[in-house]
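Lecture notes, part 5. Sequence design as translation. It can be helpful to think of inverse folding as translation between two languages: the language of shapes and the language of residues. The source text, in structure tokens, appears below.
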């Protein structure tokens, strides 16, 4: 606890490394483990992966630095931080809209993210129970048919009791840590879970290397075939880079606001972006060898993690234990992200209504539970409810997909474009120079990217995301 602001003490990260771990924890999540391999597989491997890395460096990193910079200067919840930077720059306080959009989208993402977190908990339970049946040495699901294993996922998401119950459980765990605050709660999750997560990921990857399909995976992920780089693949890669780095939803503004003056934001942002990318690549190197050596397809999409992998664990010696370790690891990663997602609106409620932290967190979580329950039921009871059927790109989609689409196609890009314009064009140059911690050519490059490349590239994603026919 340090620093006084508006008469109250504002909690801070206890050290630079605590901030780095928490920010990496926020970035690394289902986006890296579930979405990245699925997107890479669905978009043809190498071309997607290499373009993705380019997006992280040229678009993700500059916006990441912009977000943390606003937060650190503002030392308040996201909208208030933006107002403070605006007032120091003699600009309109209405720029806070960029953060308000962010707070809203963090809330929406939280609602469906915890549903997927619940699915992960389900598999933790499945593999845990299976250890007692299959033992530690053989594969998982001893003596069970392929149909049975493939049926696990549809059966679970088909039951409202399971999906809503597990959503509530995952949200409840998230709430517990956020209610305890920054240095006493969020930081503890990050400090313990992130290292545990890295160790498990590296261990399972090394294990997979000996499974035989490692060279096949390397060439799949890193062979650049230019003809595969279509417009659609590029857009998928930019979108994934954004989701994975937690950008465009004021998340990094919020985490940046707990950073002390002595931290160099540019080098810290570079560490966060590199770690997030390294984990995504490791996730690919971890998951594809398992999938390939079981003779399964790489392009299974969202089902890759929940349907193909459990299947692969059946073939593997020690499969039940490795499966359990794997899903616990995914759960850890998801938790450090959901904690960040809940923190964004909670920090806003604390600032805006002057309500104490635990109560603010409970209020936000209750709202997320209502939306989350509707999302959780969109694979079962409410499967026929298509809330935005009248809008072409949402036609036929259930509530879960609508939440996902609204945030990915509208709110996140809008939030990020506004952030780039605000920091690049509106904010006072002296303030920016003081906060960003870089000089010379690097500073000019960053300014160029934030001013020109980021807004233009992001606008392009939005347009093509909304009118997919343009690329056809
Ligand atoms: N980056 C997270 C992941 O990869 C998901 C995410 C998107 C997120 N936006 C966020 C997390 C904002 C925290 C804050 O799973």
């Amino acid at each position: 606890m340090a620093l006084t602001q508006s008469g109250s003490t504002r909690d801070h990260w206890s050290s630079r490394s605590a901030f780095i771990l928490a920010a990496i924890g926020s970035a690394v999540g289902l986006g890296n483990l579930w979405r990245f391999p699925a997107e890479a597989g669905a978009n043809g491997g190498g071309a997607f992966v290499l373009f993705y890395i380019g997006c992280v460096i040229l678009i993700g990193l500059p916006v990441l630095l912009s977000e943390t910079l606003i937060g650190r200067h503002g030392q308040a919840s996201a909208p208030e931080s933006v107002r403070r930077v605006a007032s120091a720059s003699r600009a309109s306080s209405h720029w806070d809209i960029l953060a308000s959009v962010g707070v809203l989208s963090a809330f929406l993402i939280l609602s469906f993210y915890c549903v997927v977190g619940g699915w992960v908990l389900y598999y933790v339970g499945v593999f845990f129970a299976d250890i007692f049946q299959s033992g530690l040495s053989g594969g998982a699901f001893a003596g069970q048919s392929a149909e049975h294993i493939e049926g696990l996922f549809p059966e679970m998401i088909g039951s409202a009791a399971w999906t809503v119950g597990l959503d509530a459980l995952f949200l409840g765990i998230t709430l517990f840590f956020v209610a305890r605050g920054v240095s006493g709660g969020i930081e503890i999750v990050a400090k313990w879970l992130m290292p545990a997560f890295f160790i498990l990921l590296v261990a399972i990857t090394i294990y997979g290397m000996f499974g035989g399909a490692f060279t096949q995976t390397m060439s799949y992920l890193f062979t650049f075939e230019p003809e595969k780089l279509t417009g659609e693949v590029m857009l998928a890669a930019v979108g994934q880079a954004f989701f994975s780095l937690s950008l465009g939803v004021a998340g990094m503004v919020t985490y940046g606001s707990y950073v002390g003056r002595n931290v160099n934001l540019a080098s810290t942002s570079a560490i966060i972006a590199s770690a997030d990318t390294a984990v995504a690549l490791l996730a690919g190197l971890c998951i594809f060898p398992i999938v390939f050596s079981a003779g399964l397809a790489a392009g299974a999409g969202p089902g890759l993690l929940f349907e193909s992998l459990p299947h692969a664990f059946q073939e593997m010696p020690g499969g039940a234990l490795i499966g359990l370790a794997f899903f616990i690891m995914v759960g850890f990663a998801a938790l450090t992200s959901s904690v960040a997602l809940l923190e964004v609106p909670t920090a806003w409620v604390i600032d805006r209504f002057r309500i104490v932290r635990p109560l603010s967190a409970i209020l936000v979580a209750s709202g997320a539970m209502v939306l989350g329950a509707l999302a959780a039921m969109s694979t079962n009871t409410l499967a026929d409810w298509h809330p935005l059927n009248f809008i072409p790109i949402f036609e036929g989609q259930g509530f879960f997909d609508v939440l996902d689409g609204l945030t990915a196609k509208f709110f996140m890009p809008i939030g990020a474009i506004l952030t780039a314009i605000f920091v690049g064009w509106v904010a006072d140059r002296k303030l920016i120079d003081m906060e960003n911690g870089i000089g010379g050519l690097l500073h000019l490059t960053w300014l160029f990217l934030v001013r020109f490349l980021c807004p233009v590239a992001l606008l392009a994603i939005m347009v093509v995301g909304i009118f997919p026919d343009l690329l056809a």
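The translated text above is only one of many valid answers, since several sequences can fold into similar shapes. Confidence is low (pLDDT under 50) at residues 1-8.
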